[in-house]
Specification:
Layout (H helix, E strand, L loop, with lengths): L1 E9 L5 E10 L4 E5 L6 H8 L7 E6 L2 E2 L8 H5 L2 E4 L11 H11 L4 H14 L15 H13 L5 E5 L7 H16 L3 E5 L3 H6 L3 E6 L2 E6 L8
Parallel strand pairs: 3-8, 3-9, 6-7, 7-8
Antiparallel strand pairs: 1-2, 1-4, 4-5, 9-10
Helix pairs in contact: 3-4, 3-5, 4-5
Length: about 230
């Protein structure tokens, strides 16, 4: 479970990115987070990953208190979460297999387990035949699916995808959203940060609208956008 209680984030330059945010996302939910640029979505993401700390308030994720936790515990928190970055962040000198395996090497998994799990998740995202290709040999949509496989390979409880359909053709974008839906159907909590309102409207899921640093709207269904 993710729970934010009265969370405010003010940067040193005086910018108040989040203001008294109260938000709960339960285990197994699929949630869209929408809002205009500068609304506070990026700051919210950084707080969830514990890249930033709030100025005030409380954040709890998967039993971790992100305010009180020691820095040495941050990797343990992040192992319960998978993040698909908007810019993919793949290693250009590594193959698809190696990029996905890297996430397991970091936590010290033995090679006999790594091989099995990497191919399992490459198959899930329909990329097992590209396992030995390099990122430059893939389309943007395929690179994004590699990033998704890497986010999933350590079996996180929460998956966060930042603009997963941006710069993708309609078919690739739809395939990506269907993969995220499949992951949610497996019991994972899925959070999608997006400007792509057609998918918000298409999928009947919870929609949280962030505006001017506050939760402006929070409702089930996908019948609204950023207004």
């Amino acid at each position: 479970m993710i729970k934010l209680t009265n969370v405010t984030k003010t940067y040193p330059n005086g910018t108040q990115a989040l203001k008294n945010v109260d938000l709960t996302i339960n285990d197994g939910e699929f949630v869209f987070i929408v809002g205009p640029n500068g609304a506070g979505k990026t700051t919210l993401t950084k707080l969830l990953l514990r890249e930033e700390k709030p100025t005030s308030g409380k954040i709890e994720i998967n039993g971790y208190d992100l305010i009180k936790m020691k820095n040495r515990k941050v990797p343990s928190l992040r192992r319960t979460m998978g993040f698909v970055f908007q810019d993919y962040r793949l290693f250009p000198n590594m193959t698809v297999f190696e990029n996905v395996a890297f996430a397991m090497h970091v936590i010290g998994e033995p090679n006999r387990i790594i091989g099995k799990r990497v191919y399992k998740f490459l198959k899930l995202v329909n990329l097992e035949e590209q396992a030995h290709n390099y990122p430059y040999q893939l389309s943007g949509g395929e690179q994004r699916r590699v990033a998704l496989a890497r986010a999933l390979v350590n079996n996180p409880q929460i998956v966060i995808a930042d603009e997963p359909t941006s710069n993708s053709d309609p078919v690739m974008a739809y395939e990506m959203m269907e993969l995220l839906k499949k992951i949610n159907d497996l019991g994972k909590t899925v959070i999608v940060i997006t400007h792509d309102i057609k998918f918000v409207q298409y999928y009947d899921k919870r929609v949280i609208t962030i505006s001017d640093g506050t939760v402006a709207d929070d409702k089930a269904g996908g019948d609204d956008g950023e207004n």
